[in-house]
């Protein structure tokens, strides 16, 4: 792990823990939060994607396709997930679904208004549907998935959404009512490499079995 990132994340955790134990008023918390942001700055898309990559490593260690995801609200991670359909005997146990469930549980609300989802691989149809139902404000993904990705690779489900305005008239029909901003390609090379290495390793293991 990048040392600077590790330091930033540790500081983040320490400051939030101190805020939790020391907070006396909303103003006190706000001052601590501001001091933290002045000292470290807000976490960037790349830093949140690195947190998702760490979760993808956990999936890989469990023999699952390495995909990880985090849900972020107000600059803080409130949901984490990694791919686990095999170990959980659950076809819906994709990284995004796990992270959405944890975040919804944390907020006590099935609507994740104002939240961002970071995931190492372009979401599939099922996860894109859940992202829309959860009202995620912004989706950030790493590598493209040309087989099942629906953010522009196989389909562009998020291109079906939005409200036309005089400044930005839509070229596609509005058929879905929630708009999620989408940004792809964050740490795409690292996210893609983890997946291609995983599948290369699996192919090599299969070859060994046939010998
Ligand atoms: Zn999925």
Question: What's the short version?
Answer:
With 211 residues, this protein is α/β, with parallel strands linked by helices.
Question: How would you summarize the topology of this molecule?
Answer:
Blueprint (H helix, E strand, L loop, with lengths): L2 H20 L3 H15 L4 H17 L6 E6 L2 E7 L2 H4 L6 H13 L7 E7 L3 H9 L4 E6 L37 E3 L4 H23 L1
Parallel strand pairs: 3-4, 4-5
Antiparallel strand pairs: 1-2, 1-3
Characterize the structure shown.
- This protein is α/β, with parallel strands linked by helices and 211 residues long.
- The chain is built from seven helices and five strands.
- The chain has a five-stranded mixed β-sheet with strand order 2-1-3-4-5.
- A hairpin with a 2-residue loop joins strand 1 and strand 2.
- The chain is globular, with a radius of gyration of 19 Å.
